[in-house]
Amino acid sequence: MTCPEYSKVLSIDAPLSFEGNNISEYCKTFLNGLLNKNYHNRFSMDQAINHPWLTFTKLKVDEIFERYQSDPEKMINVLNNTENTEKYFKSKEQDYKLINVSEEIKKSDDFLSKKRRRNKTT
Asked: Taking the complete model, does pTM exceed 0.70, yes or no?
């Protein structure tokens, strides 16, 4: 999506649409968290870097790196042709503890509320 296209999306009160895109639910929640129009509900840096989509994608890249580190050309080819499908994420769910994004958002909201209260009193 280009910047002008994204600006148009932001000016519309409709939710983001991912129709026609073959992306996982994890990716959709990640993008919605980053692109949320309400900055109070937008992901913080910690929420973004600890999101399962990013965490599991990093694991996939690390696996490919370990496997093909002796052949950089093959590694690049495999990385370029890799898709993180729902099946991949579901298999990783069983191996790794998922971060509860909604709890992280709540913690972030609590922190921001306390910070605003402190700023008003000073």
From this structure: no
Nearest to 54 by CA among 34, 81, 79, 77: 34
The pLDDT tens digits for 62-99 are 999 999 999 999 999 988 888 766 677 777 666 655 44
- Asked if 53 contacts 27 with a C-beta cutoff of 8 angstroms, the reply is yes
Instruction: Map out the domains of the chain as residue ranges.
Output: 3-121
Cα distance between the two ends of the chain: 42
Among the listed residues 81, 93, 79, 89, the one whose alpha carbon sits nearest the alpha carbon of residue 28 = 89
How far apart are the C-alpha atoms of 17 and 15, rounded to whole Å? 6
Please answer whether residues 91 and 24 qualify as being in contact, where contact means their C-beta atoms are separated by less than 8 angstroms.
Answer: no
By CB atoms closer than 10 A (0-12, 13-18, 19+), residue 24 is buried
Q: Which residues, 6+ apart, have CB-to-CB distance to 44 below 8 Å?
A: 104, 108
Length of the chain counted residue by residue: 122
